[in-house]
Amino acid sequence: MAEFVYYVGSSLDGYIAAHGGGLAWLEQFSRVEGVGGSYGAFEKTVGCVVMGGGTYAWIRSHSPGTWPYSVPSWVFTHHELGVDDDADVVLVRGDVVEFADELRHSAGGKDVYIVGGGVLAGEFLAAGLVDRIVLTIVPVALGGGVPLFGGRPLPEPAGFALAALVERGGTVELTYRRT
């Protein structure tokens, strides 16, 4: 069965993007040996991606005319957003729980990749829908920005167990599975 996986990079102080959505601090680590290969291997396990409207807008503005995902992409948004002709994108409104079965079906037996942002990842976490977290911590402190899980309290703690740890050039990739 498809797992919901939050694969994400974070600063030391728990932010996935700087104020305004900047990722230059994170992108510099994509050249670290093994980081790109890890993401490439993960990408092969993905059957669909899910993201928030802000992440979708950021991707479209930073890669105009080119959609980076070849699998179905679901965007949770409260805004009217356009869709590029060549992109397999579904815009939805509502609670993540309402769409969980459709997302699994869309993934075709592969994993559902929770791309971000932090608020949407926090909604999946609060709903008990995050099966695995692959978190790469990079040696940078931002002091503020977009929190890893949106910064909103959970109704109850979500337990995870460490399944793997890999150090690469100062970064640490941690894989956690829901307990």
Level-1 CATH class name of the domain at 1-13 and 45-148 and 166-171: Alpha Beta
Shape: globular
In DSSP terms (H or I, runs of 4 or more residues), the helix count works out at: 5
For the biggest β-sheet, the strand order reads 5-4-3-6-1-7-10-9
The CATH architecture classification of the domain at 1-13 and 45-148 and 166-171 is 3-Layer(aba) Sandwich
Total number of beta strands: 10
Structural class determined from secondary elements: alpha/beta
How far apart are the first and last residues' alpha carbons, in Å? 17 Å
What would you call the quaternary organization? Answer: single chain
- What would the average pLDDT be, to the nearest integer? 94
Overview of this protein structure:
With 179 residues, this protein is an alpha/beta fold. The protein has a domain at 1-13 and 45-148 and 166-171: Dihydrofolate Reductase, subunit A (3-Layer(aba) Sandwich), CATH 3.40.430. The chain is built from 5 helices and 10 strands, in the order ββααβαββαβαββββ. Strands 5-4-3-6-1-7-10-9 form an 8-stranded mixed beta sheet, with helices on both faces. The relative contact order is 0.26.
